[in-house]
């Protein structure tokens, strides 16, 4: 029965890069944690075997990736590079966690387009 239960959400976490850069909290004697932004993306309402469902989830993952990386100012050139690295790692991690060929194909197609520009 447990094999029939499908995953219906995936959490996106900011990258280790952003943790080290923006979100690290100075460790005092009483501080031993760092805030890691995350977003839970639910997709139980989607049929990932269809183009429509896979595209809808991929768009949700893109939006969530933008949210977890929002602390980086995209207008500043050095921050833009950090935002891009954070976004790409968050998105690729989420696509890998979903582990569906239809969603992975959309990611690969998008990645190949962006590398050509």
Question: Please, could you describe this protein's structure?
Answer:
The chain has one domain (6-112). Strands 1-2 form a two-stranded antiparallel sheet. 55% of the residues lie in helices and 9% in strands. With 117 residues, the chain is mainly α.
Count of domains: 1
Helix percentage: 40-55%
Spatial order of the strands in the main sheet? 1-2
N-to-C order of helices and strands:
EHEHHH
Largest sheet: 2 strands, antiparallel
Rough outline: globular
Indicate the low-confidence ranges by residue numbers.
1-6, 15-33
Tally of strands: 2
Q: How would you summarize this macromolecular structure in one to three sentences?
A:
The chain has 117 residues and is mainly α.
List the helices and strands and how they pair.
Elements: E1 9-13, H1 16-23, E2 38-42, H2 51-68, H3 77-98, H4 101-116
Antiparallel strand pairs: 1-2
């Amino acid at each position: 029965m447990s094999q029939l239960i499908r995953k219906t959400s995936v959490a996106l976490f900011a990258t280790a890069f952003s943790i080290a850069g923006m979100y690290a909290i100075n460790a005092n004697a009483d501080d031993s944690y760092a805030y890691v932004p995350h977003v839970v993306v639910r997709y139980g309402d989607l049929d990932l075997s269809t183009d429509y469902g896979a595209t809808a989830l991929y768009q949700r993952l893109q939006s969530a990736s933008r949210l977890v990386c929002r602390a980086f100012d995209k207008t500043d050139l050095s921050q833009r590079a950090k935002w891009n690295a954070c976004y790409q790692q968050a998105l690729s991690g989420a696509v890998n966690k979903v582990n569906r060929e239809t969603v992975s194909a959309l990611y690969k197609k998008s990645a190949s387009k962006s590398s050509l520009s």
